[in-house]
Amino acid sequence: MIDIDITMFIQIVNILFLIVILNTVLYKPVLGILAKRKTRLAELETDAGNYRKNAKLRGEEFDKKLLDVGQQAKVKLDEARNEAQTAGNETLAKIRSESDAAKVSQLSQVKSDFATAQKELSGQLDSFANEMASKVLGRAV
């Protein structure tokens, strides 16, 4: 049976005293640490979200800049190709005109040489004809 005497009151005071001591020494610091931990985790999650968002924005910005640089490079390459084509066409036209001029000059030289040779040969034509006739006939003509 339970006897109610002074020891029961001492045990009740002892338990209340233990509750107060444990509350101030153990429970409040542990609850404070858990609250700080929860706050810190929330901050870290927020920071991680911000870092992900910034990384995504920077990635998009990098992709955009890369695309812009690629387009600029393509434009410059097209310009350089067009300039090279123009320079090549000009050089080709110059070479063709020089070639045509040289061809005309050589053709006129050949024509003049041909005319000179024709005049020389036409002057000697009578003597060649006489020699051939003499050889064919076997006597002097």
How many individual helices? 1
Tell me what portion of residues adopts beta-strand conformation. under 5%
- Helical content band: over 70%
Mean pLDDT: 91
Total number of beta strands: 0
Residue runs with pLDDT of under 50 for 5 or more positions: none
Question: What can be said about this structure in brief?
Answer:
With 141 residues, the chain is mainly α. Helices cover 94% and strands 0% of the residues.
What does this structure look like?
There is one protein chain. This protein has 141 residues and is mostly helical. The chain contains 1 helix and no strands. The longest helix is centred in the middle third of the chain and has 132 residues. The N and C termini lie far apart (182 Å). The mean pLDDT is 91.
Features:
141 residues, mainly alpha, 1 helix, 94% helix, 0% strand
Write the layout of secondary structure elements.
Layout: H1 6-137
